[in-house]
């Protein structure tokens, strides 16, 4: 493929990642410490594979070993201060206090496996040693989270711990009797409702395996293949490179658990193409940020949040969640696609030329690289357990890679995939452990119900105002948090408010999940948009505003599927689903043209407002609104075509 303009180099990509994504701020270790970390990461993956194949240990042992690996490796890989990232500490390259913290992390992770009989027999009665170890576990989790994930979730977890202690001094309905230091430690580390709770449990089983699956896929070169496939399909269309970004980012999102990483990976390829074609810097960055963020909403993996959702909701299968999320995700990407199309029409942009396109025959020869993704969907649909589906998908990846020499995964590649998968899992483990602290405090103090009642009272018991306040809460809580922690926090704190008003659990959880995710593109803390601006050279806040505008569907659709669960394929049949798809996609066309201000010609203010509300009527799955919406939509199409022809005749 010919050069599409300046593409970000590997070093530039790493610099942007380290600036906006705390997960990427790791030391480059060599020598003996480098080997220690390498072997530690490899051992981490081998432990997880062993338990996945032969059966997991009891909850406390499985989760504490997982935590011990993560804590030790985080303190060796992630410096205490970002400015120390490239600083060498003598021949060992790691400060003495980091090495000490790593050792303490191993001790904390080993405590439950070694002492489990005594801990079970004592039934919650803590010894002085237990209290010291439990306190160290809390402090280490907070510091590891600060280093590997960032300050926002660390501050939230710390605030919740303080809330647990200072309960009697809290105002109004926030007040509670308070917990002593010993009670907090006991709840946080010596039960399965704190650090060793469900979030870390899912991290130590399902999530880790899917991160390994993603690492093996990367070794086959599937990321570049996504780009080539997207160019082959969409490159020659009007405004082709922007559509390539949407298509590629949706595919990347199936294996990526980070909006920022998705932006930098696919954006280094797509953003220069968009700029070369004529898109503004901010628009190019906005398209990539919106599309990459949408990757977290895309089944089958949904940034690993789908697996957490199964555990949190209970009584629901993984397939139910993936099925429910399908139409909203389709509408999200349809909205971005439509807006980029009409923006390209408005400013007269072309698609790629034949010379700029890849060789389609060569692209199709590698179509087998999609087999692992097809396999994971089929296996999960068949009812296979998530753990086994992930394991078999890794096997399919290795087998599929063997079709051609350039994609083949050898022993060395497999070892590096195991190491890379474990490295990716470190931040997830820290984030889910910190999220466990938040869940533990909510459970112990009843804060979830207090907040729910407070939000409902604030909104006068009305559903729409409650949804609005919950949306604001989810966006604020989701700022700067990775997908998994983001979902845990928003589902624990924000979702109970709308469930209290009778909204089905699945609708409520997807509602807060959507708004927690779009925090990545909502200014002022829009990490995905800022990363895209770093690649495009655009102004960060304007890029954030542009990405939020392009992702308008994410601000509308959650309200619709709460009010009408048919959009989630709940209590409907094939005919109903087909009708919902047709009217919803038509509605997104109307909203997209309204946001851009162009259809067959430039639209005036009245036409834009009319198109927007027509789109809302069509997306809301109800007979009367669909009928009225289709009539107005048809009138708008005729109006656009008629006045366009009249203008041509007049000219």
Automatic annotation (TrEMBL):
Keywords, sorted A to Z: Membrane, Transmembrane, Transmembrane helix
TM helices/strands, residue ranges: 32-59, 65-82, 94-114, 126-142, 149-166, 196-218, 325-342, 363-380, 424-442, 462-480, 487-504, 510-538, 550-570, 576-598, 627-643
Pfam families with a match to the protein in the record: DctM
Signal peptide (residue range): none
InterPro entries associated with the record: DctM, TRAP_DctM-Dct_fused
Taxonomy, superkingdom: Bacteria
Chain ranges of the TRAP C4-dicarboxylate transport system permease DctM subunit domain: 136-570
Lyase as UniProt keyword: no
Protein name: TRAP transporter permease
UniProt source species: Bacillus mesophilus
